[in-house]
Write a structure and sequence with these properties.
single chain, globular, 248 residues, alpha/beta, eight-stranded parallel sheet, TIM Barrel
Length: 248
């Protein structure tokens, strides 16, 4: 859970680290607790495609020690959705399907309080000591996802948007948008374009990875946040291996 006096996500990025994140979609607080025990660099709770409801989200975030940043991939670029995730104790949000500088700026404004933004003051956790929370609120992170052809075309403007702390490539939707898979030239060219835009703007670039091997490969390429494990994949592989081993 976000500790305004000991934020870690943006500091780790500024230090040049590549963060290995665990991605959790199944809506289980127990799995969040298990993941947190293993001390990953970050935990992402998937509120867009995952099973998280607000009450469960708040409970799960509360189980994570403050030194492990929790980010929420929100449903969309709506002020109430972004504010709700932050009110629950997240250290930042990952905003999907950003396709323009205007959309990126809207996400930034939803993370920041007035006069620099438009976030509403409230939430059970922030109001416990709102002065303390407000003093640390500049450490909250805005991560925007590029995952469409239109987003790639506007990557330079998106990455250069003031207040964007990271651009994160959504590989699945990007492949769908391009009609091209990871082995295709168009896909590689799109990734390269996003990387160039981030380098020009001096903004970290992360990418969704579906395996530990892919995460390590992307880290070697210079990406600054990768996914080292997801609860869906870990559960499916574990159950599949057990059933297969038993049959054999």
């Amino acid at each position: 859970m976000f500790d305004p006096q000991r934020p870690s996500f943006k500091k780790r990025l500024s230090d040049g680290d590549c963060l290995g994140a665990v991605w959790l979609a199944l809506g289980s607080a127990a799995l969040v607790e298990m993941a947190a025990r293993e001390r990953p660099d970050a935990i992402v709770l998937d509120g867009q495609h995952g099973l998280w409801q607000r009450r469960e989200l708040e409970a799960a975030i509360g189980l994570v020690p403050g030194e492990i940043p929790v980010l929420v991939r929100v449903e969309d670029n709506a002020m109430a959705v972004i504010g709700g995730a932050l009110d629950a104790g997240a250290e930042g949000v990952i905003v999907p399907l950003v396709e323009s500088a205007e959309q990126a700026a809207r996400a930034v404004a939803s993370v920041r309080y007035p006069p620099r933004g438009r976030r509403s003051g409230g939430g059970v956790r922030p109001l416990h000591d709102f002065g303390r929370y407000l003093r640390g609120a500049d450490a909250l992170a805005t991560v925007v996802m590029i995952e469409t052809r239109a987003g790639v075309e506007q990557a330079a403007a998106i990455a250069a948007t003031e207040g964007v702390d990271m651009v994160f490539v959504g590989t699945g939707d990007l492949a769908l948008s391009l009609g091209a898979g990871p082995a295709d030239v168009a896909y590689a060219d799109a990734l390269a374009a996003v990387r160039r835009a981030c380098a020009a703007a001096d903004v970290p670039c992360g990418i969704f990875t579906s395996s530990l091997e892919a995460a390590c490969a992307r880290r070697r390429e210079g990406y600054r946040m990768v996914v080292i494990a997801s609860d869906i994949d870990v559960a499916a592989r574990g159950f599949g291996a057990a059933a297969s081993d038993f049959r054999s």
